Task: structure prediction
Amino acid sequence: MKKTLLTCGLLLGCSTFAHADPLSAWNDTAAKQSIEQWVQNATKEGSPAFIPTDKRYVVFDNDGTLWPEEPLVFQIKFIVDEIKRQAPEHPEWKKDPLLKAVLDNDLKKVMTFGKEGLLKLVTLTQSGMTTDEFNQRVANWFDTQKDARFGCRYDQMAYQPMRQLLDYLRENGFKTWIVSGGGIDFMRVISQKMYGIPPEQVIGSFALGEFSLTDNGTQIRKTMKGAFYDDGADKPVAIHLFMGQRPVGAFGNSDGDLQMLQYTTANPNYKTFGLLVHHTDAEREYAYDKQPGSGGKLIKGMEEAKAKGWTVVDMKQDWKTVFDPALCPAK
Amino acid sequence: MKKTLLTCGLLLGCSTFAHADPLSAWNDTAAKQSIEQWVQNATKEGSPAFIPTDKRYVVFDNDGTLWPEEPLVFQIKFIVDEIKRQAPEHPEWKKDPLLKAVLDNDLKKVMTFGKEGLLKLVTLTQSGMTTDEFNQRVANWFDTQKDARFGCRYDQMAYQPMRQLLDYLRENGFKTWIVSGGGIDFMRVISQKMYGIPPEQVIGSFALGEFSLTDNGTQIRKTMKGAFYDDGADKPVAIHLFMGQRPVGAFGNSDGDLQMLQYTTANPNYKTFGLLVHHTDAEREYAYDKQPGSGGKLIKGMEEAKAKGWTVVDMKQDWKTVFDPALCPAK
Result:
């Protein structure tokens, strides 16, 4: 929008530029129309659905909502890669059945260790180092790794329609937040660049740090103390803790986002908006959320969407493109 | 500033208006000059001390920095008043030595119960109810209670020089945050109105909530789970958790703010600013921070301020007014 205005300023008359569609990656279906209608009413003073600027807070899940989560959540891929990177310094890891499974790429076996196994891997790769060291490791990983199927860097794989939606909402005075099960420090490394969202508007799973003085300054060391998993019924809890007010719009893709949508759309003061991204496009992305038991399942959410009038985005029907062709061209 | 510009717009020529001093409640001493110099350099492109807008994050303690903390921290007064308000429904409280001491106004005795006693009082008055109920109780308390010495409502007792400083920093592109030992939910009730700071930029002591569905919506109930006391070495930890980047300016008044100032002023990327409010004015406010053992003591901070070039505000010398005369006139 800024670009458009600038162009118009330079060219004087420019009606075609000025009407460039901010949601051009969306097909002109009911999903897109429901978004536009809500935003138009929310920003029209005097409308019964008007929302004052200081209440226009909207929350977005990340995995499966703003970028893919199949075949493996990207942060889990980071964890696996970190274990492999550090393995030469830790010959003893080969004797550990969980770590051996990771090093052998036997992810099915890794899964048999359940939540406890995941916690152990998180502890190994995301605690013990300083926050600066961790940020550097994450940045290096994003700089060097690519998705196996699409051949793109992970930080170039934002869904283009959702990236446009974030811009569109901000242009209309909304404050955009991420509320994700992903690690808060992990996501903050790329949130500004990928989504235009500053670090303080990223809420995620977290644990507390430990502050200390060093020879030439200060540091915060990551620990697992007070570990908080930002998912399900704890998403509204985290929203209250970090944001301190109830949002007016919530965007998710799985039953882990259900309570966030319930909390948001039960806001008694404003006409709210709820949206679920339904993964139906095996050709351009993945189709995986219909079956119970699959990653990021969407069962209860679909039922409740019908009852409550939430918008369900059918990826295959409603999105013109999935990834930004300039960043991650279709093969 | 906005008002000034508007006035100028209407009156055309208005050089005297345009030069209205945004820090008029400060005497023209070294403290004020150090603030102005840092801000001028931080906002001057090309200056070696320039700070880009998206890094201009500054953090303020609340008790003793933005409003008084003597003779009793205001939130402790709230807790005492809440115990008294609820006592008629709890005849059994009279048999409890701690609660009896509260009801008898025997604060010296209350103090003998130490941290454990305080935790019990916090649990009684700040958990168990929904966040909406709690906010309502806090709002009612601010609406009805006045400070015994000054006769003003607590939410009219912001230090005028600091309130001007917040505005001045925001006008220069800084994002102002509160980082306080006070309860995060408690402060958020009044932060916008008193300081122009929205709820999400208030960091404080917190505990987790519990989300649930109700007959006609959703609720978050306050618990003591994961209780975090935002003071001392945990202030930088909370800043990292909520803000996700290191500030460039820190403003405090006691040794509980020491690590926050250390963390901020050790920011390796920018010319930073540290400031301590020194309570030297028994006539207009209080003089209490010199003696070890008194509330909000400032001993280590004074030493480190000298070594590190932090600004120390001598309230008596450096402030023209303490409270805004329009809100809380001197008697």
